[in-house]
Design goal:
Mean pLDDT: 77
Radius of gyration: 43 Å
Strand content: 5-15%
CATH superfamily of one domain: Histidine kinase-like ATPase, C-terminal domain
CATH topology of one domain: Heat Shock Protein 90
Length: 718
């Protein structure tokens, strides 16, 4: 009996593995009948496994589930009767897995998870492949339920076991599972990384099922990230793979149905050859065979039809995904347009803020300067005025930093000037400016410039000065009674192009690792409470300025031991004019406006006062127009040597419009825009204007005078 059951079980497995489900079902029925005895329940369970899976393959999930339930009952009885630690424990494990699998495949995930957990307790820790499958199925079931947190431990264990097995097919499945997990956790970047690995391994092993699912989830993840074009491309690749699988499965289904017809026909002919004395029995068998043939042929055709329907559903889903991607692409474009409108609105807001902040600052700084220079003001009050001016200058510095950050954030190709400058003189001015930031800290500054560093260079001196002041100023703020050293050396050179290394080192309080990690992120300084920390924009601005020049800012610091900031810069070495040549242009600027008549077009009374006091201090004459319309009428009625034109003048006509009207009847009078708007905006608008020059408020008196004198010169001498 044992030999017969062993032989029959072996034959059934062969038939199932060759996908001969008709023979599998027929022989399994015989085997279950022979093994339905407590002594042979191990064979009963094994044969039932083949029978149930064959029924599932032909679509009879209800009957397959019942078979697996009966099989588990027999396995539990058999395991109770035998040694629980024996090899026969595998019988129970097989029955649990079969039932759990079909429960999961029919959407009964909670029941499936219960069975998987039960079998997990029974599985030997050395049975790595079986453990992989159970953990994989547990994770998959939780993910199908939309419970990624519950799936996490099993996803992690599946990944660990795949590394032990070290087979590409297992790893492909594990990475697919991880990708699905991260997708449900809304970590789409991590999901794509795992899915990419899964696709590579699935391609290497021709693991089509994993490949299709990995492409499906990759398309979804790209769509969630807003990468609709990439998602669409992945979806197209997915369509090709599914069509190939559809064609392959359709051929297999047709071949399977044809083979079943042929097998049935052969059986029928063989039965027809039986001796005539058994004709009656033969006729009965023939009738049964025909009925079976019709039954199994119908089943085979049903399988093929069901497969075709499933594949068509898959195509329908792909088409729906493509439609969704197109719709999301439209939404993306709308959101992009909305984002661009918001960006324009933000820039307009910054421009307005710039004007509103700089306008009163012009008055504060200007009047402070007058009071300091006014000999009639008592010396006891001048100290207070100096404090007022210091606060005003500090506030102006903060305003400039905020506006500079906005300018750097909204453009990646900011034009860099090419000025000729003396690097030693520039460093001297940077140090003196940095000292002013914290006068009470009593730090000692050192400037060390190697002898092989040239005197003159060509580059953006203003931005280099801004970087050095920011870095030296930070050192001064966070160092008390210490030393601050600015060191410059030449790293290498190619002709006149020098690769200079800049280093600012201090002996201050240093920076904690936590703060150092986010030191260049301006958003991290929104909530800060450290004394003298300021806006926190100096370093981010310096970093962005250096990035425009292909340079990187490096910071090394340790709490209590100071900070070192370094960067490299490529500058063109040049020969500067002699001191006599450099001094010549200054002599041409006459610091006297005697006989010069200037029209001040300004709507703000305080700013009118500041501007006229500057002109008066240089003996100039002036008249004031409160708006653009008044300015036009006054220029028509009188002759002026120069017009100082405010830009923002409500109501009705701004400075540019007023200038266009004036140019219709006076094309020669110099017009200088006197404005508080942001520099990047005024530069853009000046290109198409009819003005000669511009000044941004607040400004230095020397700069104001120089602009006026240069505008009054004949064109050939400007």
């Amino acid at each position: 009996m044992l030999k017969e059951l062993e032989s029959l079980r072996f034959t059934i497995r062969e038939k199932y593995n060759s996908q001969d489900f008709v023979a599998t079902i027929d022989l399994s029925q015989q085997g279950r009948a022979l093994s339905n005895n407590k002594k042979f329940y191990n064979y009963y369970t094994s044969i039932s496994s083949s029978l149930g899976n064959a029924l599932f393959q032909i679509g009879d999930t209800l009957q397959a589930t019942q078979i697996f339930i009966e099989s588990l009952e027999k396995a539990e009885m058999y395991q109770t009767l035998n040694n629980p630690e024996s090899e026969e424990l595998k019988v129970l494990i097989t029955a649990y897995i079969d039932l759990a699998n079909i429960l999961a495949l029919t959407g009964k995930y909670e029941l499936a998870i219960e069975k998987y957990k039960a079998v997990l307790k029974l599985t030997d820790e050395n049975d790595v492949q079986r453990l992989f499958i159970i953990n994989y199925n547990l994770a998959e079931s939780y993910l199908e339920m939309g419970a990624p947190i519950s799936a996490a431990a099993y996803v992690q264990e599946t990944d660990r076991l795949s590394n032990i097995i070290d087979a590409e097919a297992y790893t492909a499945g594990s990475k697919l599972l991880s990708g699905k997990f991260f997708f449900q956790m809304d970590d789409f970047q991590s999901s794509l990384m795992e899915l990419k690995k899964s696709i590579e391994l699935a391609k290497a092993t021709n693991y089509t099922e994993v490949l299709i699912e990995a492409y499906d989830y990759s398309a979804k993840a790209e769509a969630e990230l807003g990468n609709y074009q990439k998602a669409f491309e992945l979806s197209q690749t997915l369509d090709v793979l599914e069509k190939e699988k559809y064609d392959t499965d359709r051929v297999k289904a047709i071949q399977s149905a044809k083979a079943e017809f042929e097998v049935a026909e052969i059986k029928r002919k063989m039965e027809a050859a039986i001796k005539s004395e058994k004709l009656e029995a033969e006729l009965r068998r023939k009738e049964d065979l025909q009925n079976n043939t019709i039954l199994w042929s119908t089943i085979a055709l049903t399988i093929a039809g069901a497969l075709i329907i499933l594949l068509l559903i898959g195509f329908s889903r792909r088409k729906k995904l493509n439609k969704d991607l197109i719709e999301k692409n439209i939404i993306y474009l709308e959101e992009k347009e909305k984002s661009e409108r918001l960006l324009k609105a933000r820039n307009a807001l910054f421009s307005r803020i710039s004007h509103e902040l700089r306008t009163p600052m012009y008055a504060i700084v200007g009047i402070s300067n007058f009071l300091i220079e006014d000999n009639s003001v008592p010396e006891t009050q001048k100290e207070n005025i100096q404090s007022l001016k210091y606060s005003a200058d500090y506030l102006l510095s903060l305003i400039n930093n905020v506006l500079e950050m906005n300018k750097l954030n909204r453009t990646s190709n900011l034009a860099l000037a090419q000025d000729a400058f003396d690097i030693r003189e520039l460093c001297h001015h940077a140090v003196e400016s940095a000292k002013y930031i914290s006068l009470d800290h009593a730090n000692t500054f050192h400037v060390q410039i190697n002898d092989d560093v040239s005197k003159g260079y060509k580059g953006d001196a203003v931005k280099l000065m801004q970087v050095l002041i920011n870095l030296l100023g930070n050192s001064n703020k966070f160092t008390k009674s210490g030393e601050i050293t600015l060191h410059i050396d030449k790293r290498k050179s190619a002709g006149d192009l020098h690769h200079l290394g800049f280093s600012i080192k201090d002996t201050g309080k240093g920076i904690t690792p936590r703060k150092l990690k986010n030191i260049f992120d301006e958003t991290k300084f929104i909530n800060h409470n450290e004394e003298n920390e300021g806006t926190g924009l100096g370093l981010p601005i310096s970093k962005k300025i250096l990035e425009l020049q292909d340079s990187v800012l490096h910071i090394q610091s340790e709490p209590g031991k100071g900070t070192t900031v370094e960067f490299d810069l490529k500058l063109q070495a040049i020969r500067l004019p002699s001191n006599e040549q450099q001094a010549a242009p200054d002599k041409s600027i006459v610091k006297d406006l005697t006989g010069i008549k200037i029209l001040i077009v300004e709507d703000n009374k305080i700013n009118q006062l500041v501007t006229k006091k500057i002109i008066e201090s240089f003996n100039g004459k002036f008249e004031i127009a409160d708006c653009g319309l008044d300015a036009i009428a006054m220029v028509k009625a009188k002759s002026y040597d120069l017009i100082l034109m405010d830009i923002n003048m409500p109501p009705g006509m701004d400075g540019f419009e007023a200038t266009r009207e004036i140019r219709k009847f006076d094309a020669t009078v110099p017009i200088i825009a006197l404005t508080a708007v942001e520099q990047i905006e005024i530069e853009d608008r000046m290109e198409d204007s009819l003005m000669n020059d511009y000044l941004i408020k607040p400004f230095k008196t020397e700069e104001f005078l120089e602009k006026i004198v240069n505008s009054l010169k004949p064109p050939s001498t400007r």
